[in-house]
Each structure stands twice: as C-alpha cells, then as structure tokens.
Amino acid sequence: MFPYLNILGKQIPTYGICVLFGITFAALLVYFMTKKRKDFSKVHIINIPLFAAIGAFIGAHMVYGITRLDVAAYIFSHFQDFTSSFGRGLELMGLWIGGMVFYGGLLGAVIAAKMYCKSVKIDFSLYADIFAPAIPLFHAFGRLGCFLGGCCYGIESTWGVVYHSELNPDANGVTRLPIQLIEAGLNLLLMAVLILMSRKKFKKGTLLGVYFFAYAVIRFVDEFYRGDLIRGHLFGLSTSQWISIGVFVLGIVMILRRYVIPSTKNHFQPRVDTGLIPAGYFYNQYSGMINAEQVQNIKYGTVEKSTLTVEED
Question: At CA 225, angle to CA 103 and CA 15, rounded to 5?
Fold first, then answer.
C-alpha cells in the first residue's frame, strides 16, 4: 500500500490527497450542473457545502466515538490517568474520537446544510438534488484513499490484494478482497444514475432520497466483506449496517412523501427546467421558477420577484 507520498521531502498522506481530489471533482460537478441555471442562488451553492463540511467533520468524529465506547469507558473509569498529563489526555482523546466514520460525516453534513437552509429561509429540497450526485463522487475518491492507505480492508480471499501496510500490520501477508475499490466503483455507478435522473423532471428532493436508500443497500452488503475489526458490532451487525437500515428507511420515506403520501403543503413541486429564468417569471423559494399565473396557486411560502439577472439571447 501507499499510505504516504514523498513530495518535496515531506510525507503527505495519500488519503488526504484523494480527499482533496474528491472535493475538487465534486465541486466541478456541481459547477457544470448549475452553470446554465439561473434559478439557484450561487451564494447558497457556495455556502451550503461550507456549512455541510463543518457538520461532516463533527458528525464523522462523533460516530467514530460511538464505535470506541471501550475507550470512553476507560477514560471515565481511569479519569486520573486521563488528567495525568496533557499529552496523555490528547492520546486518549485521539483513541476515542480521533478517527472518522463516513456515515457520521454524511448525516452531520445533511443536518448542517438543512440548518443553514432553514436559517436563510430557503427550501433544502430545492438544493439537495444539485449536491446529491456529488456525494458518491467525493466518496469514491475517499474509498480510493482508504485502499492506498491500507484501511477499511476486505476479508481474506482467493483473489485480491496482498497488503503491506505500515498503518495496519495485522492485515498484511494475506490476499484480501479490495472492498474499498468495489465500493468506489459502486459509488461512481450511483453518481452516474443520479446525474441521468437530474436531467429528468422529478419532485424536489427525489435524488437525495434515491441516494440515501441506494447507498444504504451498497453499504449494508459490503460491510459483510470488510475485514477490519475496529468497527463496533451489535447483534451480529456492524455500526454502519445499523445506520444503513435507518438511512434506507429515511430514503424510502422521502420518496413516499413525494409520490405516495398526500401532503397538504406544496413542498415538493417538480424541479424547474434547466436554463435561464424567462422574462415574466418569478422565483419562489419553495417552488423554483413559476409564472405569474401560478402565483395564486402557491399556498405555502412567499413569492418574490427574482433578483437574478435575466440574460437576453
């Protein structure tokens, strides 16, 4: 494995490099999906990922801490050891919450993004579909980083990769299933499906719901082929599998609310067509682009004239 790259005499973690590439390509994807659209605020397109990143950082560490409750129990039962020195305290805190779990980052990012949207009074569902395809793209690069770093490795197998990792010596010397690369490939496939769906007319928030239940299935299955033992388990299922069940249910509920369960609120109108806002149209924070005749039919939220510049061909 290649946990580090030597660049200008400094060792740079390959996982960090992969994450940087993931952020870059995810941002480019969002840019190309929105560059011809004037029915979205570019300010919110920038701000939402910034708030989501903060939520992802906090959530990823918190869920990792849940998987290391043994360390938390040691800290509280040996508090004197924890406070014996600053260095020892940092060491124990690193063991407890120093790692990150993707699901924690995902849920933290969604919660933070939704809080931002609520604070500025815009509809989260209106923007969720723009970012939905970028999530599996970013995640694919993250899994590539896991493969290069030698973490999140697969079970022993008759084919695969023989590990030689400094970070996880227990995994070395046997052929293991490259489950990280398999999940990365499935994430790219999911991204392609979501991009194709984004070109069709679906109700707002549909793509995020599809991502939730589709990735939950992917993650639930591939957890059976993970060989690392650092993850927590309960009743034969890993922490991520239990979270997958919850995320799957959440995704299904999101789809049902939009297409099956009747709603008295006009939250989930179809997304607007790609293109500029024509003259005579208004921008509604809940409904996107609407014409003047539709204004009287809006029963939820306020209708404001678009402040975006309408370009003439």
Answer: 50
Strand, coil or helix: 234: strand
pLDDT above 70 covers a percentage of the chain that reads 80
Closest CA to 304 of 288, 312, 119, 276: 288
More confident residue, 174 or 287: 174
* Angle (deg, nearest 10), helices 134-149 and 14-34: 170
- According to DSSP, the residues that pair with 226 across neighbouring strands are 154
Tell me the domain boundaries of the chain. 4-41+122-281
Average pLDDT of span 60-84: 82
Where do we find the tokens 């940087």?
Answer: 20
User: Are residues 223 and 152 in contact, defined by beta-carbon separation less than 8 angstroms?
Assistant: no
Q: Is 288 helix (H, G, I), strand (E, B) or coil?
A: strand
Q: What is the pLDDT of residue 309?
A: 38
pTM here? Answer: 0.80
Residue 169 CA to residue 173 CA, distance in Å, equals 9
